[in-house]
Amino acid sequence: MERQEHYMRLAIEEAKKAEAIGEVPIGCVIVKGDEVIATGYNHRETDQQATAHAELIAIEEACRKLGNWRLEGCELYVTLEPCPMCAGAIMLSRIEHVIFGAVDPKGGCCGTLMNLVQDDRFNHVSELTSGILEKECGEMLTTFFRELRAKKKARKRAMGCIAPDETV
User: Fold this and answer.
1) Closest CA to 55 of 22, 20, 18
2) Could you report the per-residue pLDDT of 95-116, keeping only the tens digit for each?
3) Which residues hold Zn(2+) (predicted)?
4) Domain 1-151: which CATH class?
């Protein structure tokens, strides 16, 4: 557990990089043995790219570093449960173990809505661990979206779209 918390803290640091540039704070690290071989954080808004998720960025970097599309023996740590796209990439890249922080009730595909990485109909199944530093990971996202909503509300008020005492 201590090892998993260490690497999840590194993923949280990646998520903070995303938050610093106005991105949804999701971070990812990929570990092989005891070495971090790749990192990533969301770039969707920055790059205007639907696929610029933390996991995909880290998977691409890990493949380059290892010179192989197969990431066997690797662990992927991510602050939020992977979406269908990322879960598919995890499965296709043959990552051995997926460890995530907060569950995603609206898009999680590592156990919440479905479990793509452990569906034995595919030719690869990953080990799965959830809830590592879940509170910290979840609070970071909750705070980000609360502040985003407050900024949007303030802009609407400034433009006169809503009355000062009206709620949105």
Assistant:
1) 18
2) 999 999 999 999 999 999 999 9
3) 53, 83, 86
4) alpha beta
Measured distance CA(1)–CA(143) in Å, rounded: 26
CA 69 – CA 12 distance, rounded (Å) = 25
Calpha distance 28→54 (Å, rounded):
6
Binding residues for Zn(2+): 53, 83, 86
**Which of 44, 146, 143 shows the shortest CA–CA distance to 154?**
146
103 within 8 A of 112, measured Cβ to Cβ: yes
User: Looking at the annotation, which residues are catalytic?
Assistant: 55
Amino acid sitting at position 51: T
pTM over 0.85: yes
* Annotation: binding site: 53, 83, 86
